[in-house]
Structure formats: structure tokens, C-alpha cells
Amino acid sequence: MTQKYIPSRRVRPSRPSAARPAGSSLYKAKRVRAGGTAPKPRKKRAPTQDQAAAAAPPVAPELSEKQRRHLRGLAHELKPLIRLGNAGLTEAVAAETVRALHDHELIKVKGPGGDREARDALFIDLAKRTASALVYRIGNVAVLYRPNATLQRILIPD
């Protein structure tokens, strides 16, 4: 029986195992460079005006009533992206909210049920920590808005 030639298939060399030293591999070992020099440190560039503006902390936008109504209409069909649990507002939740605001600009946040004043304070604190505007709050759901600094996706009326 002859072996069929398949180009992508690796075939072991046909030599007896006695000809090969013990512990050696069938394939050639990779070359490893030892004692190379350390890479040169890179020079740091001076920040440009765009980078300096991006590094400044964002400020929460002031919204008129007409703008709030427009955003409320856009947010009606959204599902809550952030859910606050029993631990409340943690650093991880705030960081995830910042990421979601950067990606979506307009998000819904669902808070824990319970005391209304505590829930309102929680949503206001989250809006301050993320530099976003609290568009509205109904029950345990709030809507936050922060325009993207580089590419604004949602156009709101003046």
C-alpha cells in the first residue's frame, strides 16, 4: 500500500529510531538569542492641543427643557445598560458607566428598589462622577447623557 501525497500533511522521516539520539525531536529546534542588548527607551512627545483638551476632565452639559424632551424621546426605546446592585455605586460601576457613556452617549441606568431619596442621591452622585447630565428619572430607572468629545453621534436641538 502506497502513501497518498497530500501537500499540507507533514510526514515523519523514515529512519529507524536507533539512528536518532535519545530525547531529540523530529524537527529542528528554534534558535534562541541569548544576551541581547536591552531596547532603547523611547522619547516622550509633548502633548498637542487635541491631547491636552482630551486630558481635561469633561464637564456635564447643561440641557434646556427642549433638549431634555428630545433626549427623553430617544431614550424611550433603550434598555438599561447599567444595573446597580446592593453594593450601590462602586468604582467599577462608575468606570463601566463612563465606558458606556463614551460608546453610546445616552444610556439608561437601573437602580435598586427601596428608598426614593437614597435612589435619587445615588443617580445624582453617578451623574457627577461620570460628568454627565441626568436627563430624567422615573421610578428606579434614570437616563444619563454625555456627548462624545471626539465624535458626537446624537444631535440635539438648540
The sequence of SSEs as H and E is HHEHEHEE
Shape: elongated
Distance between the termini: 83 Å
- Protein structure class: alpha+beta
CATH architecture of one domain: 2-Layer Sandwich
Instruction: Evaluate the radius of gyration.
Output: 30 Å
Structure annotation, total helices:
4
CATH topology name of one domain, in short, is: Translation Initiation Factor IF3
- Reading off the top of the CATH hierarchy, the class of one domain is best stated as Alpha Beta
Protein model, in words:
The protein is α+β, with helices and mostly antiparallel strands and 158 residues long. It has a domain at 66-145: Translation Initiation Factor IF3 (2-Layer Sandwich), CATH 3.30.110. 29% of the residues lie in helices and 13% in strands. The protein contains 4 helices and 4 strands; from the N terminus they run ααβαβαββ. Strands 1-2-4-3 form a 4-stranded mixed sheet, sandwiched between helices. The chain starts with 48 loop residues before the first helix and ends in a 13-residue tail after the last strand.
How are the SSEs ordered, and which strands pair?
Layout: H1 49-55, H2 65-75, E1 80-83, H3 91-104, E2 106-110, H4 116-129, E3 133-138, E4 141-145
Parallel strand pairs: 1-2
Antiparallel strand pairs: 2-4, 3-4
